Structures are given as structure tokens and as C-alpha cells.
Amino acid sequence: MPYFIYKISPGPTDIIKNLELLTQFEVFKEAKNSAKATRSELPSDSNITIKVIFADNELDAEEKLSEKREASIVKEWEK
Fold first, then answer.
1. Residue 5 · residue 35 · CB < 8 Å
2. Domain boundaries, given as residue ranges, for the chain
3. CA gap 12, 76 in Å, rounded
4. Does residue 65 contact residue 53 with C-beta atoms inside 8 Å?
């Protein structure tokens, strides 16, 4: 399964996000390095997020990125 790199920008609502596929890699290290390089090119005040996602195909990747995830529970010792 390939690693996809997406540029995520805010959509018209909090639920809807604009997803743009930038590229894909077969090796995680290459995907990670490409994502880091892309992030470093963004301005510091940018509201754009660059994410690496491991998925079967583009559709699966976009579904995973669009899922509403619950905030993780912070334990007392993690504060």
C-alpha cells in the first residue's frame, strides 16, 4: 500500500476540508522527507496542513482524512 501526501486546507465549514493530493510514495522514509520539505516551505502563519496517510488507494486515503476523530483523552500524568 502506498503513502499519500495531502495538503489540507480549511473548507467552508469545520466538517468539510479541502483535500489536495500532492504525491504518493511506496516507502515511508521518502514520504516523510517529502512532507517535511513541503511543510518547511509553508509560511509560519499558514492554516494549511500537510499529512502523510497510509491507505489502499486515493479514495481510502481521503475517507480516512475526512473522518471526524475524537480528541484523545489526556491522562493526569501527561499534562
1. yes
2. 3-60
3. 36
4. yes
In whole angstroms, how far apart are CA 64 and each of 7, 11, 14, 42?
Answer: 14, 17, 16, 24
User: Quick one: 69 exposed, middle or buried, by C-beta within 10 A (0-12, 13-18, 19+)?
Assistant: exposed
pTM above 0.70, yes or no: yes
Cell digits of residue 2: 502506498
For the segment 3-62, what is each residue's pLDDT rounded down to a tens digit?
A: 999 999 988 877 788 999 999 999 999 999 999 999 999 998 999 999 999 999 999 999
Contact 22, 36 (CB under 8 A): no
